[in-house]
Amino acid sequence: NPDLEKSLLKALKKLDNYLNSPLPDEIDAYSTEEITASSRKFLDGDELTLADCNLLPKLHIIKVVAKKYRNFHFPPEMTGISRYLKNAYARDEFTNTCPADQEIEYAYLDVAKRMK
């Protein structure tokens, strides 16, 4: 459904913009160098927070389900989302509590069928 894909891309773009925007503590007021992009690992810095624990599983599910049932991939130019997920996948706390992709695909099979 093109409208759903457009809405998803719009939401992902907002998240990507946020993840790529430097937080105040990333900006050195005394530096002559202008920081235009964030390098933080998570939503609020380099430490995993409760907000990440809420968002990351949902983002992972969207990534898995959209790829499997709609052949939709997160656009590679969304570097903030890519960095965010890469940092999550590097954490044992995330990978050890995340269901396998096959489990997610199976759980959303009926939903995907109804949306065809």
UniProtKB/TrEMBL annotation:
A GO MF term: D4 dopamine receptor binding
InterPro entries reported in the protein's UniProt record: CLIC, Glutathione-S-Trfase_C-like, Glutathione-S-Trfase_C_sf
Gene3D superfamilies assigned to the protein according to its UniProt record, in alphabetical order: 1.20.1050.10
Residue ranges of every copy of the GST C-terminal domain listed in the record: 1-116
Membrane topology summary: Single-pass membrane protein
Stored SUPFAM superfamilies: GST C-terminal domain-like (SSF47616)
Catalytic reaction annotation: chloride(in) = chloride(out)
Keyword field: Chloride, Chloride channel, Cytoplasm, Ion channel, Ion transport, Membrane, Oxidoreductase, Transmembrane, Transmembrane helix, Transport, Voltage-gated channel
Subcellular location: Membrane; Cytoplasm
GO cellular component, one term: chloride channel complex
Family note: Belongs to the chloride channel CLIC family.
Domain notes: Members of this family may change from a globular, soluble state to a state where the N-terminal domain is inserted into the membrane and functions as chloride channel. A conformation change of the N-terminal domain is thought to expose hydrophobic surfaces that trigger membrane insertion.
Protein's UniProt name: Chloride intracellular channel protein
Name of the coding gene: Clic6
